Amino acid sequence: MTASSTPTAGAEATIRSLEDARYAAAISGDLDAFTALAHSELAYTHSNAVVDTLDSYLDKLRTGFYVYHRIEHPVDRIVVTGDTAVVVGQMHADLTAGGVRKTLANRCLAVWVRESDRWLLLAYQPTVLPQEA
Fold first, then answer.
1. Is there a contact between 51 and 63 (Cβ–Cβ < 8 Å)?
2. Distance between alpha carbon 84 and the CA centroid of its chain, in Å?
């Protein structure tokens, strides 16, 4: 069995695709698509340390508190162990938050869990990258 055909490699490819789908849903404002990818106990932390639940985050998207204009999310690595996947990467975005246009540069961590053969986003945590001197 080659590395690319291992169950872990398959899970990594799935998670990478799901990450693309969740960011695309945020940019397009597709709340149904985002909801389908999220765990009901989602803890969505923002770079300002505010933590949203699934419901509060969806409400902020629905009301236009968060409007994403562009998101790039390079993935450094994905670690799959059992029914948990951890995505380590970055998130660079242009967005409007609370009526203020912002540019974000974050290192981030996303946690996905597999339940009933579906991967769901359980947690997201960004950390602001320090500005270069």
1. no
2. 15
Query: pLDDT tens digits for 5-52?
Result: 466 779 999 999 999 999 999 999 999 999 999 999 999 999 999 999
Tokens of 80: 């799959």
DSSP 38-78: EEEEEEEE-TTS-EE-HHHHHHHHHTTSEEEEEEE--EEEE
Separation between Cα atoms, residue 31 and residue 61, nearest integer Å:
8
Nearest to 68 by CA among 104, 116, 107: 104
**Assessment of whether the complete model's pTM goes beyond 0.70:** yes
